[in-house]
Each structure stands twice: as structure tokens, then as C-alpha cells.
Design goal:
This protein is 21% helix and 9% strand. By secondary structure, the chain is α+β, with helices and mostly antiparallel strands. The chain has a domain of 26 residues. It has a two-stranded antiparallel ribbon with strand order 1-2. The longest helix has 11 residues. The chain is flat.
């Protein structure tokens, strides 16, 4: 629900999946990357929420 509209460009294709679409073959994106993108679009620096221990 947080991705419709806004600044995200619709219809963009990124990467390639296998024949059945089960896993990324080229340019996989993790949940961490998606989270960082959402925070960036909201105006937050995602590295500010990182705690390095």
C-alpha cells in the first residue's frame, strides 16, 4: 500500500527471473534494498537507522 503513486515510476522492468518467475537470475533486489528505497522516497536517510555493533 505504500508504493502506489508517489515518485515511483510505473511499468519499469528491473532484472530477470527464471523461466517460472521463482527467483531472480539477474540483478536481484533484497528486502533491505526495498526498505531503503521507501525511506529515501519519504525523505529519510536509511543509513541513519542503521546501528553498527
Amino acid at each position: 500500500m505504500s508504493l502506489p503513486g508517489g515518485v515511483i515510476k510505473g511499468g519499469a522492468i528491473y532484472g530477470v527471473t527464471d523461466e517460472f518467475g521463482f527467483e531472480a537470475v539477474e540483478s536481484p533486489v533484497t528486502a533491505h534494498d526495498l526498505h531503503a528505497t521507501i525511506l529515501s522516497l519519504l525523505g529519510f536517510n536509511h543509513e541513519g537507522f542503521t546501528y553498527r555493533y
